[in-house]
Design brief:
Layout (H helix, E strand, L loop, with lengths): L1 E2 L2 E2 H10 L3 H11 L10 E3 L2 E5 L8 H10 L3 E2 L1 H7 L13 E6 L10 H10 L11 H9 L2 H6 L4 E4 L4 E2 L5 E9 L2 E8 L10 E7 L7
Parallel strand pairs: 5-10, 7-11
Antiparallel strand pairs: 1-2, 3-4, 4-6, 6-11, 7-9, 8-9, 9-10
Amino acid sequence: MKYGNLTLGQIEAGINKIGGEEAFLSLLRDELVVPQHTRRWREQNGVIYFTLPPTDGTTGPQWIERLEKKGFQLSKWSRDVLNSPDFKPTTGVVNNIAVLKGELFSDGNRFTKKIRAEGDKRKLKHGKDISPEIACQIREMFTDEEIKEMGLVWIIAMHESISDSDGDLRLLNASRNDDGRWLYAYYGNPDYRWNRENGFAFVVPQASPQN
């Protein structure tokens, strides 16, 4: 009997040469290692791209409960944003995300207003055109290890800034931290300067259907 270009006798001889059947199986196991996870994002020219699952209408308070049940930690300010009437969930929307890495901006230009302006140049959606729920989806979707692989510490959703209980403007963000997996909310005023290790999540507009 032949297997490809080899006879059964030749295969058996090869197995015996490397130390028998157990050694052969061990070699196969070493060669066929399955990676722990398949990368769910790609990077091109300092921009990280990925697609979020369809939105399911989860409200802000429901996100608090949902994330806490999965072991995530939420800051006081993120709770304020999630409990705000300005948090508007959607249903059945599939968002393609583009994260502009902080390294694309010089330290003197990494301000919220200039980051939004760069999003406009690239024709990306932000502000009132996207829902803050994308921050919750990003936090739920990616592990801290994956965020680290992206070269980031925070991923800030560039939604319309929402006021916290003190009246300060906030933007939701997924954050990896030594003390756990966090959903934070940081300053969203136009003149706030961010760090190089931050990423800024915009929504890529969907192509218009062809007639």
